[in-house]
């Protein structure tokens, strides 16, 4: 895991344009995966509260797990965005370290 992180950091540090493109892509994907996620969670929880465990047969529990997966996927896109942002800020604020 450490070598993957180091590789990712070095690639972004040496290629700021790639970091910028990846940052934009992850920003868009973060927005798409997190769009209305809170409202869907609320609706799913209210469904459980209103009808109890009867909704499990109708797929509400599966939907809850899918919403959780979308939440974590959205988090991954956000972390990629922040990593790219950090590398770009470092690139522009430390010009003496450029290769």
Largest sheet: none
Proportion of residues in β-strands: under 5%
Number of beta strands = 0
- Please bin the fraction of helical residues: over 70%
Secondary-structure class: mainly alpha
Poorly predicted ranges:
none
Domain module count = 1
End-to-end separation = 25 Å
The number of helical elements comes to 4
Oligomeric grouping of the chains: single chain
Order of helices and strands: HHHH
Plain-language structure description:
This protein has 99 residues and is mainly α. The protein has one domain (2-92). It is built from four helices and no strands. The chain has helices spanning 2-14, 16-34, 37-51, 60-93.
Descriptors for this entry?
99 residues; 4 helices; mainly alpha; elongated
Topology:
Blueprint: H1 2-14, H2 16-34, H3 37-51, H4 60-93
Helix pairs in contact: 1-2, 2-4, 3-4
Give a summary of the structure in a few sentences.
Helices cover 82% and strands 0% of the residues. The protein has four helices and no strands.
């Amino acid at each position: 895991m450490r070598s993957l992180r180091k590789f990712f950091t070095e690639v972004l540090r040496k290629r700021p344009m790639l970091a910028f493109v990846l940052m934009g892509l992850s920003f868009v994907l973060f927005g798409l995966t997190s769009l209305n996620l809170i409202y869907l969670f609320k609706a799913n929880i209210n469904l459980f509260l209103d009808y109890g465990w009867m909704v499990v047969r109708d797929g509400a529990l599966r939907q809850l797990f899918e919403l959780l997966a979308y939440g974590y996927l959205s988090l991954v896109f956000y972390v990629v965005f922040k990593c790219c942002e950090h590398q770009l800020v470092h690139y522009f604020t430390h010009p003496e370290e450029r290769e």
